[in-house]
Amino acid sequence: MAAKAIHKIVTFLGFLSLLHAAFSAVQHRSYLRITEQEFTTLPIDIIIQGVASLFAVMYGVMHIAGDFKEIRAVVDLENKSWETFRNLPSFQIFNHRGKALSPEYTVEEADRRR
């Protein structure tokens, strides 16, 4: 429980730091326009902050999201037996009105079942 809270804090701080790096980059570009200097690259501290923030966000999100599932469907299907492949319990309806359409259906037979 505490580890998940720590990962949420790391993710939040990573997003906050990433937002700060983006704001710093915009501010640096504005400064270059005001002083009429040519833009070549961002200062190294903004680049390092952006990359470190990105890794902090990725680390936090990977731990908050939980376990990854295998992309291949075969991995999930290997653990199931042949009988359970077509077992769809939500569609198994045994008592329905369709039996009344059968030519062998009689009302007395339905009353005896109740």
From TrEMBL:
The keyword Signal applies. Keywords: Endoplasmic reticulum, Endosome, Golgi apparatus, Magnesium, Membrane, Signal, Transmembrane, Transmembrane helix, Transport. The keyword Magnesium applies. One of its GO terms (molecular function) is inorganic cation transmembrane transporter activity. Residues 1-21 form the signal peptide. It is a multi-pass membrane protein. GO terms for cellular component: early endosome membrane; EMC complex; Golgi membrane; plasma membrane. It is found in: Endoplasmic reticulum membrane; Golgi apparatus membrane; Early endosome membrane. Pfam families: MMgT. The chain crosses the membrane at residues 40-62. Component of the ER membrane protein complex (EMC). Part of the endoplasmic reticulum membrane protein complex (EMC) that enables the energy-independent insertion into endoplasmic reticulum membranes of newly synthesized membrane proteins. May be involved in Mg(2+) transport. Belongs to the membrane magnesium transporter (TC 1.A.67) family. This is Membrane magnesium transporter. It comes from Trichogramma brassicae.
